[in-house]
C-alpha cells in the first residue's frame, strides 16, 4: 500500500468513527464554517454600529483650518496656556476640553472643533477623549453639576438618601444631579462634587443649602469644602493658612 492509499484509508476510518459516535453528543461537524452563527451581544453591550462596515466614501479626518475656524480669543488663550504646561502639547487635551466645556456649557461639535483647531488635532481624536470620561458631556447639560458619590463607603454613610434628597431639591433649577462611582474622598463621606468643589460630610439639609448657594452665586458649603480642611499635622500648615481650624486646633 502506497502513501496515498494509506491517507485515504485513514480518512475513511475517521469518517466512520465520527458516524458511530454521532449519537453521543449530537452530530459532529467536520468544518467550523458549517457551525450555526453564535448569538452575541444580544444584551446590547456592543457600541451601536460596531458590525457596520467603514464608510470609505467619507473624507479622511483632517485638522480644522485656522483660516475658516473661528475660535473665541479667550478660549484660544486659555488653551494655549494649558498646552504650554506640557512637553507634549497633546497632553493638554483633557484640560483644553474642560476649558471648552466651561466656555460653551458642553462639548458641542463646535467646541471640539475649536479645540482641535488650536491644538492642531483632529476633532475625531478629541471626541474619543471626551466620550471616554464621565466629566465631559457631548449633549447639552445644566449649568451646574452635582456628582454624588454613591460607592460603598459613602453609600453606607447615607449617600443614597442624600442623592434622592439632592435630586428633589434640584428640580426646577439649572442643576444636574447624578450618582458617581467613587470620587476618592472617603474621609469626608458622604460627599459630593459641586462644579468640581468637593464638599462633605453631607446631611439631608445640605441638599437645600447647595441649591441656595448655587442660585445665589456663592461658594458652596464653604465650611464643608475639602480644600478648607486642616492638614493632619497642624505644624505642617503654611504660614498663610486661611482654612477653617478643627475644634482644638484654633490659632
Describe the fold and architecture.
With 251 residues, this protein is of the alpha+beta class. Among the domains are: 73-130, Orthogonal Bundle (Arc Repressor Mutant, subunit A); 144-232, Glutaredoxin. The protein contains nine helices and four strands, in the order ααααααβααβββα. A four-stranded mixed beta sheet has the order 2-1-3-4, covered by helices on one side. The radius of gyration is 30 Å and the shape is extended. The termini are far apart.
Ordered list of secondary-structure elements with their pairings:
Elements: H1 3-20, H2 22-25, H3 73-83, H4 93-104, H5 109-119, H6 123-130, E1 144-149, H7 152-156, H8 159-170, E2 175-180, E3 192-194, E4 197-199, H9 205-216
Parallel strand pairs: 1-2
Antiparallel strand pairs: 1-3, 3-4
Helix pairs in contact: 3-4, 3-5, 4-5, 8-9
Largest sheet: 4 strands, mixed
Any idea what the CATH superfamily of the domain at 144-232 is called? Answer: Glutaredoxin
Mean pLDDT: 82
User: What is the general shape?
Assistant: extended
How many helical elements?
9
Strand tally: 4
What spatial order of strands do you see in the largest sheet? Answer: 2-1-3-4
Instruction: Identify low-pLDDT runs.
Output: 41-47, 246-251
Please give the share of residues in helix: 25-40%
Give, in order, the helices and strands: HHHHHHEHHEEEH
Q: In CATH, what is the class of the domain at 144-232?
A: Alpha Beta
Query: Between the first and last Cα atoms, what is the distance in angstroms?
Result: 104 Å
CATH A-level architecture of the domain at 144-232: 3-Layer(aba) Sandwich
Secondary structure class reads alpha+beta
The Cα radius of gyration reads 30 Å
Amino acid at each position: 500500500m502506497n502513501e496515498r492509499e494509506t491517507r485515504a484509508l485513514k480518512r475513511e476510518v475517521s469518517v466512520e468513527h465520527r458516524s458511530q459516535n454521532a449519537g453521543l453528543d449530537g452530530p459532529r461537524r467536520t468544518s467550523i464554517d458549517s457551525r450555526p452563527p453564535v448569538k452575541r451581544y444580544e444584551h446590547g453591550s456592543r457600541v451601536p454600529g460596531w458590525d457596520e462596515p467603514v464608510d470609505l466614501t467619507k473624507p479622511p479626518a483632517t485638522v480644522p483650518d485656522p483660516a475658516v475656524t473661528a475660535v473665541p480669543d479667550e478660549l484660544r488663550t486659555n488653551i494655549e496656556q494649558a498646552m504650554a504646561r506640557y512637553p507634549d502639547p497633546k497632553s493638554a487635551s483633557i484640560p483644553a476640553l474642560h476649558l471648552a466645556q466651561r466656555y460653551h456649557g458642553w462639548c458641542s461639535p463646535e467646541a471640539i472643533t475649536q479645540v482641535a483647531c488650536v491644538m492642531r488635532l483632529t476633532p475625531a481624536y478629541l471626541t474619543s477623549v471626551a466620550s471616554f470620561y464621565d466629566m465631559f458631556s457631548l449633549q447639552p447639560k445644566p449649568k451646574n453639576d452635582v456628582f454624588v458619590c454613591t460607592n460603598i463607603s459613602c453609600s453606607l454613610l447615607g449617600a443614597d438618601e442624600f442623592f434622592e434628597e439632592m435630586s428633589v431639591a434640584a428640580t426646577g433649577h439649572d442643576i444636574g444631579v447624578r450618582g458617581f462611582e467613587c470620587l476618592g474622598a472617603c474621609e469626608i463621606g458622604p460627599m459630593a462634587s459641586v462644579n468640581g468643589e468637593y464638599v462633605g460630610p453631607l446631611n439631608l439639609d445640605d441638599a437645600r443649602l447647595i441649591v441656595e448657594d448655587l442660585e445665589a452665586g456663592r461658594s458652596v458649603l464653604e465650611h464643608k469644602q475639602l480644600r478648607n480642611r486642616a492638614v493632619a499635622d497642624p505644624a505642617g500648615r503654611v504660614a498663610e493658612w486661611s482654612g477653617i481650624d478643627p475644634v482644638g486646633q484654633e490659632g
